[in-house]
Amino acid sequence: MTYSITAFDAKASQWGVAVQSKFLAVGSVVPWAEAQVGAIATQAYANPRYGPHGLGLLREGLRAEQVVARLTAGDDGRAERQLGVVDASGGAATYTGDDCLDWAGGRFGPGYAAQGNILVSAATVDGLADTFERTAATGAPLAERLLDCLDAAQAAGGDRRGQQSASLLVVECDGGYAGLSDVVLDLRVDDHERPLDELRRLYGLHQALFGKTPPDQWLPVDDELREELRERLGRLGYASLEEWAGVENLEERVEGDEAIDPFVLEVLRTKSA
Hints:
Blueprint: E1 2-9, E2 14-21, E3 31-34, E4 38-44, H1 50-59, H2 64-73, E5 81-87, E6 92-96, E7 105-109, E8 112-117, H3 123-134, H4 142-155, E9 165-171, E10 183-189, H5 195-210, E11 219-220, H6 223-236, H7 241-247, E12 259-260, H8 262-271
Antiparallel strand pairs: 1-2, 1-8, 2-9, 3-4, 4-5, 5-6, 7-8, 9-10, 11-12
């Protein structure tokens, strides 16, 4: 009922999982990832214990193919399982049990493992894998590459039963909120007619609130701009940019009063127009 990809971006030191399924809240079952450790997708007649147990094995230093072998060997239900693993160095492995429903299978390469079951055809998994390989040299963020993978898989046929939920998980050491979390993003669409479209919308919102404009692109706050900020903030009932940004959930994009993120300024101008 599901197609997924586990992936590693060596340049960004990020690991991620993207998944879509005709299944309620697929993000609560399939994706698992830990910074500097690896990523896992457990699906088909999923064994959720593969997630924490597999990460534990990766933490011990086992390679992706060793983790797959260890998890499935100790599972009497392995014939109905499907599993994708990427380890700390980008090594990958995928597994499809003999009793998974057609079409079912997987493909792996440097930095990724793609798999799916109850698919229209193998073209869905090829869409995941080919897109990940093709976007490797683009410099695009891992999250965006994974979204592109899901879209390509769906365009190739997707889940034979249709669409319902989707999820995108990306981790990086200290790469999350306030630099105090390893979760760069954890977005979930639990029930939607077009979950991939909704996942894109949520990603755009996440980037607006928590994205980073390079410091050299910030605008210096001269006297004229400082007066504009004071007037616009006053119009909205705020005494400082920090106070307003906290209400708008933009606090991650504000730092001092000598320069301003142009995105923040655009939002302020729109809100105070």
